[in-house]
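User: Hi! Is it possible to get a structure for several chains at once, not just one? Here's what I have:
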Amino acid sequence: MTTIQLATYGVYLVGAVTFILALKFLASPKTARTGNLLGAGGMILVVAWTIATTEGLLDNWWVLVVGGLIGTVIGVIGARRVPMTAMPQMVAIFNGAGGGAAAVVALSEFLTATSGPVIGSDLLPAIPMIATLLGAVIGSVSLTGSVIAFGKLQGFVASRPVTFPGSRIVAAVLLATLLLLAVALAFFTNDVTLFLVFVALALVAGVLIVMPIGGADMPVVISLLNSYTGIAVAATGFVLGNYALLIAGTLVGASGAILTQLMCRAMNRSLLNVLFGAFGTGGGVAVAGAAGEQNVRTINAEDAAVLMAYGKSVIIVPGYGMAVAQAQTPVRELMDLLIARGVDVQFAIHPVAGRMPGHMNVLLAEANVPYERLKEMDEINDDFANADVALVIGANDVTNPSARTDTTSPIYGMPILNVDKAHNVIVLKRSMASGFAGIDNPLYGEPQTAMLFGDAKATVQALVAGVKAA
Amino acid sequence: MTEALDPQALVDALFILVLTAFVGYEVVSKVPTMLHTPLMSGANAVHGVVVVGAIIVTATADSPLQLALGLVGVILGTVNVVGGFVVTDRMLEMFRSRPGKDEKAEGGKGPGA
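Assistant: Yes, the chains can be modeled jointly so their relative placement is included. Here is the combined structure:
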């Protein structure tokens, strides 16, 4: 082993440690940012070292300059410009890029191996070939799957589950063909055209896997695809004999899998149910008929403001509606005014509120709400019974009491916020339309509930004015 | 591809794979729900290391097709790694707002307004 090779292992080890610390430091908001910067530093070190020591780059240096420039410009502009509400789809698209890169690396490595002089047997050795195929197929699925997930959240692909007659059969045939091609390529032939067909089918598979999943479940899908990209990167790392790729890929593959599991548990659903689930296909339609039959009480902003201003404790329940209306800043103002009057204000954050776990925390933190006031579900659920007002802003399914009692409800069993236990419930909503899961919310018909219709931002601003005047 | 042929290298890789998977599990289990979005984004940035793979295959490219693949790989990998870290930093920046201080400053002018 040369000195340079030895040093490379050292650099990769340092890189691996920073990657682990980057994730570990996320355990607390105080250290999280430092961790991320540390990870970025480790990454720069690893990449710079690779460029400096890889032989043969002198002829192709322009590829790195041009590719690096284009990639950096796209990455920085995307990351800086994206509004916080669109964060989930941004992560999806970055993830898709990583998956695509892994697939491209696998393909290129295959081409190099097949174009070179063949030693001994005619076939490439099976084990690295299987890893190459894994990197290609999982990376490709992650690429197109992420693009569809992005489209569903951004609104240019229908966010409802999209299926067509026989779609299950098509998917099954596709899967079988992929498996067959993989076996053929690993053990019987190293035909380049066959490999390209394999990659093309994997790209189609990514689309077919994500299309039938509803927009509400996209966070879980993005997390899963993130894990996939990790596995694809680990596979290419194995093929290249590169420990940096192997470690980082495995780390993300494992952590992404756990995160996906945690997210499913928060919704009380299995991953299988999310991927092939009943949502939207059967369940949603069955209950939709009951919509609009509820008698609801409405309230105006002034009365709602008085109720909160003279209460002792207010719990705010934010949802995606708040994010869409960009109401975070007025909500913070409302909080400040209430606190100044001696009202105890807390925020109840459901694990799946918004479009991603923690999405609400990010948005509220952006509006300078101290994170100590943001309470997780288990922490705050007992406090609702003592709350004078529960103010629900654009949240729906996570407050739906039928998740507790109605066994026929598609969200039955999902842990919910005990909003209905509060003395008064004020629900800010645009209209009586149902939530993302497409089901009715009996909370709105309860006697302690009053509806305050309108755009969330304008309504919260009216509440702010009301509290000032009260 | 021959790098992965040596039995010793295979065993090493297997050990790394299994142990790293446990590390990933342990580390993520301790992250609170409110940081799950930055976590997903941060993990996403970490697998951006794939750009190293793209650099390596670019070095061995000997046909225009492989050069093109290398270029695409470098672009995609760079988007992943740069975008990933920048967007995560942007998210985490927001969690740094000094609690108590903000609250008092805003609260102080509240009743007078």
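Residues 1-30 of chain B form one domain. Confidence is low (pLDDT under 50) at residues 98-113 of chain B.

User: Great, thank you!
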